[in-house]
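Q: My collaborator sent me two sequences in one message, no labels, and asked for predicted structures for both. Can we handle them in order? The first one she listed is below.
A: Yes, handling them in the order given. First sequence, followed by its structure tokens:
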Amino acid sequence: MKDINLLAEKATKIRKDIVEMICAAKSGHPGGSLSAADIVTALYFSEMNVNPQEPKMENRDRFVLSKGHAAPVLYSALAEKGYFDKELLKTLRQYGSPLQGHPDMKKLPGIEISTGSLGQGLSVANGMALSARISGQSYRTYVLMGDGELQEGQVWEAAMTAAHYKLDNICAFIDSNNLQIDGNVDKVMGVEPLDKKWEAFGWNVIKINGHNFEEILEALDKARETKGQPTMIIAKTVKGKGISFMEDVCGFHGVAPTPEETERAIKELERVAKI
């Protein structure tokens, strides 16, 4: 799916799913799920070689949601892709549901790795990328990290490793919305300048608007063309993107919307997208 309008339509459906499932669960992380929706949409519906009918296909591309608390955006994308019935989304965080608060690879098809402990995703992705090289496979590994997550030291150890081994089959995204649970990232523990830091660690760095599909797709093309270096796409995003009263509001990092707020959010999304 390369049509920008179709991707935008799919992203709106994913945002609606996010709000509705978190409201039903009365628990979850809407802000960072909404900010990542366009990136995840582009990956699953334009970029990645995956097959929901054969989720363990040997040469499939891998996706690591390092910011595991944003699980709703991944669950919705998987359901929209056809990995499981969308009715299952209503069971988010319920006892016995495979849709845990953080992704669990043993409970749901399409989940490559259980995540939630921040800072570990890039290390896992390095292992997947090295495995592809050793086994002669052509699959690529994609990683989505949060900007607050970059405060973890393991991230930078993994950054060195990927560059050292010239893992050009890794493409990582930073969902750079400048908000984490305790407030603004630059006030909690500043991580800028991200572009210069990743370049200094030996990465090919691309900066984009994380809500512009043309820029996302162009960056993914450039990443695929880059040889001898891993690629980091720094995507400037808005926490709570798509819902006016959630946008850039730290309070919606990990707070579920009420039924009334959810109804208002759905109306906003439908009005803007006209679907």
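Q: And the one she listed second?
A: Here it is, processed independently of the first:
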Amino acid sequence: MASVEKEGIQKQIQQDWANREYIEIITGSIKKIADFLNSFDMSCRGRLASLNEKLTSLERRIEYLEAKVTKGETLN
């Protein structure tokens, strides 16, 4: 009877280790996904900030040119 209990305990321990390894793999994968998403977020924010600066510059140029045209000035 003791050997049956011992085998049952060994199986439980083996299953516990297998579960822990699985959880470790899943946790590592989630961390990698989170790192990728954070990196992607920072990259997108940087690119959008750069694009916003360019658009702001173009808007200012357009406003300047519109003002010159409205006043009847030449574009030289």
